[in-house]
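Cast an eye over my tokenised protein here and flag anything odd:

===
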Amino acid sequence: MKSMDAGHLLVVEDDKQITDFLIQGLTEAGFSVDVARDGREGLSKGIESAYDAIILDLMLPEIDGIQILECLRGRNVNTPILILSARRSLSDRVLGLHKGGDDYLIKPFAFSELLARIHSLIRRTRKGLELTRLEVSDLVIDLLNRQVFRGREEISLKPQEFSLLEYLVRNSGRIVTRKQILLHVWKYQFNPSTNLVDVHICRLRERIEHPERPQLLKTIRGAGYMIGGDDEISS
């Protein structure tokens, strides 16, 4: 399996030629890329999955890019978004940034510039996420000392279990898929035959759950896993 260190991106673009160009270039640059070819699919993926950045066209079928921006930001989805559009007027750029875009690149574009802007957005966001403590419900992660507590009880975790829990808590309230977990925790591309994630989720659940406390780690049928939130639970 190939190591993938750059991050996980969502490309929302209905032009097949541009999409194929982006997939090839971003994959060669080390990114894992998901694609949505209309606005409705793009909005759904942007809400349900965790990405390091989103590349968003404005002129899309079903739902346009401005509506996607409004919906994502209205749901407190803070994924950095690079608008990639043929709309070149100052008013279009101002509107896109005002509605929640983090950067704006006009088509046609140089791939090297797009790549530099994506790296900049991700770097800026990750720097802002340099926390020392993460919390969800009564679960606390001390990132400096690499300790985990449920209430007053300290939980002993192996390094990979700690990394898995940290990734889940950083995305609390959002579904993360097995593919995303493999990418972010193990740096692997998705291998549908591996049960690596399921085994570690099972072990992690045994360590952090308590019969007298609310359930934290949830399995979302047909989708993935989540800590926090009110989605339907499947043990």
Notes: The chain has two domains: 7-128, 133-227. The chain has a mean pLDDT of 88. The first helix runs from residue 16 to 28.
